Amino acid sequence: MNIDEKIRSLMAEIFMTELELCNSEITPKTVAQWDSLSHIKLMLALEREFAIRIPDEQIVMLASFREITDAVHKLAGEERADGTRQTIAEG
Questions:
Q1: 86 or 39, which is more confident?
Q2: What whole-number distance in Å separates Cα of residue 63 and Cα of residue 80?
Q3: 16 in the Ramachandran plot: left (φ > 0), alpha (ψ -120 to 50) or beta?
Q4: Residue 57: burial class (beta carbons within 10 Å; 0-12, 13-18, 19+)
Q5: DSSP-derived 3-state class of residue 79
Q6: Which residue has the higher pLDDT, 90 or 15?
Q7: Considering Cα of 69, then 72, then 75, then 80, what sign does the dihedral take?
Q8: Which residues are paired to 85 by β-bridges?
Q9: Each residue's pLDDT tens digit, 23-72
Q10: Please, where are the H alpha helices in 1-91?
């Protein structure tokens, strides 16, 4: 399972929704269960799963699948699903 798939799986579990709904279009506006508490749970789960630390000021900015996957790839120094690599210097 790659990083994006793991993120989708975590989102489905935390938001108690179907895995298929956790796609590039998912945002707090598209999922009723994505409230402030579940957002924090997701951030903590991401930190635990990928052994990363999401800066506090960045947590509130991560409000879509793409923003979350970009941040995790950047913080983990891993390749994105499309094969490109984002570094800490990118932003």
A1: 39
A2: 18
A3: left
A4: exposed
A5: strand
A6: 15
A7: negative
A8: 79
A9: 999 999 999 999 999 999 999 999 999 999 999 999 999 999 999 999 99
A10: 3-15, 36-50, 56-59, 65-76
